Amino acid sequence: MDSWTLKVLAPSDADVVLSLERTWLAHSEENEIDRQIAEWHSSWRQESLNHYLPMGWSFGVFDLREQNTLLGYALAQPLLFFGRQTQSLWLEHIGAHEPEVQFMLFDTAVRYARDKHLQGLLVSEELITDKLNSLVRDKLEASWQQTPSSVLSRPVRFFKTTKS
Predict the structure, then answer these.
(1) Could you tell me where the DSSP H helices lie in the chain?
(2) 3-state class of 81 per DSSP?
(3) Which of 33, 43, 69, 79 could form a disulfide with 93 if both were Cys (CB 3.0 to 4.6 A apart)?
(4) What does each C-alpha distance from 128 to 61, 106, 109, 112, 146 come to in angstroms?
(5) Which of 81, 89, 84, 86 is nearest to 106 (CA)?
(6) What is the dihedral of CA 108, 44, 67, 136, to 10 degrees?
């Protein structure tokens, strides 16, 4: 972890993100057609990266010892005047397998939103329950104040970033 660094992702990082996700997908899905279908339905497909990366709110964890290898990343964007909040950060996706990387990305999203004076971080319940390691979920619940919300058609959690 000492050699890890965070970096805001740019459009030029799209190929690195796609390569990482496709490598992970190839380990879990043998059939090429099934991999293509999974990519089309993913949060990290090319069109999504074309939207998120130029905004400057998405970031990645890189290992400097491993030739600046991407270990994981988060796709996010600000939401203005949503859910009675002036500004919130929507965390669309975390792409990481290692619990330490998952927590670093999530914790950074909350801190980033706080540093930019946003009122909160919105995260789908699906991302919390299906994508994050249980140890990461426990650590998040201990670290950050959160409340369930139903402002979308799917359950989300609101992580307060303003000081109480």
Answers:
(1) 14-28, 32-40, 46-52, 99-115, 125-126, 134-143
(2) strand
(3) 43
(4) 19, 10, 13, 18, 12
(5) 89
(6) 40
Number of domains forming the structure of the chain: 1
Say what angle helices 134-143 and 99-115 make with each other, to 10 degrees: 30
Identify whether the C-beta of residue 121 lies closer than 8 Å to the C-beta of residue 110: yes
Q: In whole angstroms, what is the distance from residue 150 CA to residue 156 CA?
A: 6
Question: Which CATH number does the domain housing residue 156 bear?
Answer: 3.40.630.30
Q: How far is Cα of residue 3 from the mean position of the Cα atoms in its chain?
A: 21
Strand partners, 124: 156
Q: What is the pLDDT of residues 87-135, one digit of tens each?
A: 889 999 999 988 899 989 988 998 899 899 998 888 877 777 777 767 6
- Cβ-based neighbour number of residue 66 at 10 Å: 11
Q: Summarize pLDDT for 24-82 with one digit per residue, the tens.
A: 989 888 888 988 998 888 889 999 999 999 999 999 999 988 778 999 999 999 988 87
